[in-house]
Every structure is written in C-alpha cells, then in structure tokens.
Specification:
This protein has 19 helices and three strands. It has 422 residues and is an all-alpha fold.
C-alpha cells in the first residue's frame, strides 16, 4: 500500500484538477457550446432563459428543472463552457479523493485522478449544453460528502449530502432510483457503525424533504400528483415498446420523442392521442403491455448491455453520444466499448476484496448502490451510454482501487517467491 504525508492526497487531487481543467479548456477553444444549440440543448437554453422571467406552465415540467436553473444562474450560454470546465476538473479532483477513501491507497488515488481528467467522453461533454458534466460533479460530490460525514459522524454534513442528492435528482430524476438503496442502509441493514447509520438517516431525511418540496411544486404546475419532471412516462413507454419514436396527436410543446436505442433498433413510429407528459397513462399502458407480453422484460435487458458498452455498436450515423458533431464518434465509441472490460470488470473484481475490509465496507456499498441505480435506469428508461457516463468517475475510482490491490498482491507474491529461492 502506498502511503503519503497528510497533504499528499489533496496535492494529487489538485494536480488532477489542473490537468482536467487544461484539457477541457483546450477542447472548448475548438468547440464552444454556444455554437451547438440544437435539439435538447436548445430546449435547455430556452428553459434557462424563461425560468425566472415567467410563471411555469405544465410543459415546463417535461424538462427536469435542475439544469435550466444552472443555466439561469450563469446568465448567458457563453459562460457554460467555462463553468463546465471547472465542474469537470472538480469531478477529477473528487474522484481522486473518492479512490483514496475506497482503497486507502495513494497510488489508486493518483491513477483515478489522471484517468478521470483524461477520460475523453467527459471532456467531450464539456462542450455541450447538456447535463452530463453537472450531473457527474454532483454525483461525485454526493458520494464524497456522504463518506466524509460517515467518517466524522457528522449528521449536519450528512444533511448536506442529502441536499446534494436532491439537487442532483433535479438534474436527472433517474437518481430517485438510488433512494431505496439509501433507505435500506439508513435502516441499518448492513454491518455499519451506529454513527454511520445516523448520518445516512440524516442524509435520507434532508433529501426526502427537499425532493418533496420539488414534487409539490411540480404537482401544482401540472395539476396532478407528480415527482420532479413529467418525461419519465414517455421514456418508460419507449424502453418497453417496439417503437422507433412515440408521436402525440394531442399537440403541445413536444410532439415526438425517440432515443438512440429506439432509432437504431426499431423502424415504425407509434402514434398516441395523449400528450407526452401524461405519465399516468403512459406508465399504465406500458405495464399492461408487459403483462400481455412478459418477454418484454427480457428484451429490455438489451438496453443495459448497450448502455454498458457490452452490445455491438449500432447506427453509425446516429452515434450514442449525441449530438451535433460526428467528428469524435469513433473515439467515443472506443471508450464505450472499452468501459466494461477496463473499468467495470476490475471494479467488480475489487468488490469481492472490499467485502473483507470493514474500513471501506460502507464506501463500497454506497458506490455500488449508485451504480446499481444507473443500471436500473438503463433497463427501465433508456439504454444509452449517456445515461451511464456521469457515473463513470465512481466506477473509475472503484476500478483503480481494485487494480492497486491486485498490483500489491502481485508484488507481494513476487517478493515471497524471491525470498523462497534465496
């Protein structure tokens, strides 16, 4: 195990921040996000401009409010690139600190920081007005805050972690799928210390209160019970259908939705007479279709395979890493196809080793619970590598810890052999 002075790991994190910032600013010089406002990006920009200038209407809820609020705070789209470069660099620094807490090894921390700083898909999304960069920073901050709070037994800091969870969920509501995992651990279902359980309960309470307030506001705007946004139903419908897209005859701001997976796997659009924000009807209709054809539950696993980079690439003219630019399509695809073998497999191998260590048990449980919620989102809503990308720093931290452990074991084994021979 590589140990360092107390200031050593923070110094490594600072170096990772500087490297990541330099790479992202260099990319932004050739790819300023304000020049790529198409599709979802244009919608986010419009929502950000309107957020504080008029009352919200039901169709505003089709877009989760977190990223438009981020744009509204920045004021102009021209500031997005610089802000996201700093957020991406912060993610690299936090990944460094996470890897150290997961492995207690400075070498693993350094490796995780460098890999995250140079990880091209994360660099790439710095140049787009999309949620990947902000969500990655919030996910890593959430996990780091929770681990520091548990180590110190600080319920106040645990509450801050819970508020960070709520904020991240307003950027991507799929994070709500992490709440059952957190609740399970907060109930003490695991060999955790009493102070750790108390911190997790504080985090769960803070997150629940904040999310309840957001859901209450969304429900008022929609005029019916709702959560954070109203686009989950149409994504659930698409994920368990054979539709290339779903088109609404009811009109509204959004009349047709598709995903990369549906565009590359199916040919015919589906037409409905309900608005696309009618989540209750969309969920009910989809569940009824699954009840009639249970094999849909098995077919949907293909989305998980594609989202994890295991399935063969499809649709070269419609790359899974949306949008606007095909210039880096091959490079992005290579990263996606490499992920399961270079990142996920070592991380899974390290999970078995982590079970034997009491000092990192909670850290690994929280990290794997977050990754588990991502896999559920891939299965239930959208089998796309973009859904997974923001959680890649956490997987990288786990993988680097595992590789460092394997390296130490190999070095120790080699040392024993040499000692035996001599």
């Amino acid at each position: 195990m590589v140990t360092m002075p107390r200031w050593g790991v923070p110094a490594i994190a600072a170096a990772a921040f500087a490297l990541a910032l330099a790479l992202r600013l260099s990319f932004l010089a050739e790819h300023p996000p304000e020049l790529y406002l198409v599709g979802d990006m244009a919608l986010y920009a419009e929502q950000g401009q309107a957020l504080f200038s008029r009352a919200r209407v039901p169709w505003d809820t089709f877009t989760p409010p977190g990223y438009p609020a981020f744009l509204a705070v920045l004021g102009t789209v021209e500031r997005v690139g610089a802000a996201q470069a700093v957020l991406g660099a912060t993610t690299a620094a936090l990944t460094t600190l996470l890897a150290h807490r997961l492995s207690r090894d400075a070498l693993a921390a350094a490796l995780a920081g460098v890999v995250t700083a140079c990880y091209f898909p994360l660099v790439f999304y710095t140049g787009f007005v999309l949620t990947e960069t902000l969500f990655a920073a919030l996910l890593t901050a959430l996990l780091w805050l929770a681990l520091v709070a548990c180590e110190r037994g600080s319920r106040a800091l645990g509450s801050v972690a819970g508020l960070t969870l709520a904020l991240a969920a307003t950027v991507r509501p799929s994070l709500l799928l992490f709440l059952p995992f957190l609740a399970w651990m907060a109930l003490g279902r695991g060999r955790f210390l009493k102070r750790e359980v108390g911190v997790l309960r504080a985090a769960l309470f803070a997150a629940s209160v904040a999310l309840a307030l957001v859901a209450w506001h969304t429900s008022l705007v929609l005029g019916r019970p709702a959560t954070i946004a109203s686009n989950g139903g149409v994504n659930f419908y698409l994920a368990h259908s054979e539709c290339r897209s779903v088109r609404s005859l009811a009109g509204g701001r959004v009349v047709e939705v598709s995903t990369h997976y549906t565009r590359t796997h199916h040919r015919e659009p589906c037409v409905i007479e309900r608005p696309l924000l009618d989540e209750p009807w969309l969920y009910k209709t989809t569940l009824a279709a699954i009840a009639r054809e249970p094999k849909k539950l098995v077919t949907a696993l293909d989305g998980v395979r594609e989202g994890l980079g295991i399935a063969p690439a499809r649709g070269r003219r419609e790359p899974p890493y949306w949008p606007g630019s095909f210039e880096h399509g091959e490079e992005l695809d290579r990263y996606s196809r490499t992920y399961p073998w270079v990142v996920l497999l070592p991380a899974l191998a390290g999970a078995a080793l982590a079970r034997r260590r009491a000092d990192t048990r909670l850290a690994h449980r929280l990290a794997w619970s977050l990754l588990g919620s991502v896999c559920i989102a891939l299965y239930a809503y959208n089998g796309n590598p973009r859904v997974r990308l923001s959680s890649d720093p956490i997987a990288i931290a786990l993988a680097c810890g595992a590789l460092a452990s394997l390296g130490r074991a190999a070095h120790a084994s080699l040392g024993r052999r040499r000692a035996t021979r001599s």
